[in-house]
Design goal:
- With about 350 residues, this protein is of the alpha+beta class.
- The chain is about 30% helix and about 20% strand.
- It contains ten helices and 14 strands.
- The strands form three sheets. It has an eight-stranded mixed β-sheet. Strands 8-13-10-11 form a four-stranded antiparallel β-sheet, with no helix packed on it.
- The longest helix is centred in the middle third of the chain and has 27 residues, at about 130-160.
Length: about 350
């Protein structure tokens, strides 16, 4: 463990021979069993790309309000585009942040008899006033997809499965990039930048503006700070990987505390998840690991579904009730009746 409260793992060890690679896989398994979070260095993501992403994020949030609202997520049945400050909820409470949500670029699926989660498939909304945003986000997406696939192959081996286990079961990944700005607050008590939650998918790679704290992770019933580390991502697993390992690995609650005014904070989480129709099978763990499974966390108000699309839709409907009510009143009514 590091003095930063979370383990630090170096991805470049996978390229430094069999012993170093085996050490990385052991550390990866331990970090995501014991903590569910870690810092990842050695990814090869350049400081230049990070700087371009940060500049693009700041430029987007500095656009006139009319330009941002022209791509507001209320205009998207697929939950894409811009969310104004206070427009997203966690645990039913308002998150004090603004953001743009960017998923796979697809045509909408016109199939009323298909699964409800197909409504998440569709085009992104890009700001006409800032065409360069799409270019840097596309480059960021492709680079982080490579890192995510590398991590999943290492996880598979560390759990006694074949290296391509997750590649075979993922299908066409359902990624999501959120570019988030947390405005400063001057209230005397800490404000909810984003409330306590577990991610609903498999894997999250989080990039945070250098020097900007606020992320906290729950450890042993207490909240500990997870400040950014230069050149590192904060990585955590989601509920679906906990499900696939039957609780051998653990998804962990985390939250963000708003910065103090006049400060602000930019962060960019990248969620790497299976295709919406993918069912991530339960991994047949080696006996010594299977003996240490703890079962999947049970929350009657937040069920974990085997099909990723059902998890993703559940999360979107909860987080954006205004979008849900405008575009999917049938799903809102079904949830209320269940």
């Amino acid at each position: 463990m590091s003095e930063l409260n979370l383990p630090i793992l170096d991805l470049s060890l996978l390229d430094q021979g069999p012993e170093a690679a085996a050490r990385f896989r052991d550390d990866l398994r331990a970090a995501t069993r014991d903590v569910g979070f870690f810092y990842l260095t050695g990814t090869g993501v350049s400081a230049e790309l990070e700087a371009r992403l940060l500049r693009a994020a700041k430029d987007f949030f500095a656009l006139p309000e009319a330009d941002k609202l022209a791509i507001e997520n209320l205009t998207s049945p697929h939950f894409r585009g811009y969310t104004r400050v206070g427009g997203e909820l966690t645990q039913g409470r308002v998150d004090w942040r603004e953001q743009i949500d960017i998923g796979p670029e697809r045509q909408a699926v016109a199939d009323p008899d298909g699964p409800a989660y197909n409504r998440l498939i569709g085009p992104n909304l890009w700001p006409a006033a800032q065409p360069e945003l799409r270019e840097v986000v596309t480059e960021w997406h492709d680079r982080l997809t490579e890192i995510a696939r590398t991590l999943l192959r290492a996880w598979a081996l560390s759990l006694g499965a074949e290296e391509e286990y997750f590649d075979r079961h993922f299908g066409d990944p359902q990624t999501l990039i959120k570019i988030v700005r947390y405005p400063g607050k001057d209230d005397p008590t800490p404000q909810q930048g984003v409330g306590a939650h577990k991610d609903s998918g498999v894997l999250t790679l989080l990039w945070v503006e250098p020097g900007k704290g606020g992320l906290q992770v729950e450890r042993d019933g207490e909240w500990v700070d997870a400040p950014p580390v230069p050149g590192a991502f904060v990585v955590n697993i989601g509920e679906l990987l906990e499900y696939a390992t039957q609780g051998y690995l653990t998804a962990t609650n985390h939250r963000v505390i708003s910065p103090r005014f006049p400060d602000e904070r930019i962060s960019v989480p990248f969620f790497f998840n299976p295709a919406l129709d993918a069912v991530l099978p339960i991994i047949d763990l080696p006996s010594e690991l299977a003996a240490e499974t703890r079962g999947v966390s049970q929350d009657p108000t937040n069920p974990i579904y085997a099909t990723y699309g059902e998890n993703a839709l559940k999360s979107r409907l909860r987080a954006h009730p205004d979008v849900a009510e405008r575009w999917h009143p049938d799903l809102v009514a079904a949830r209320a009746a269940s």
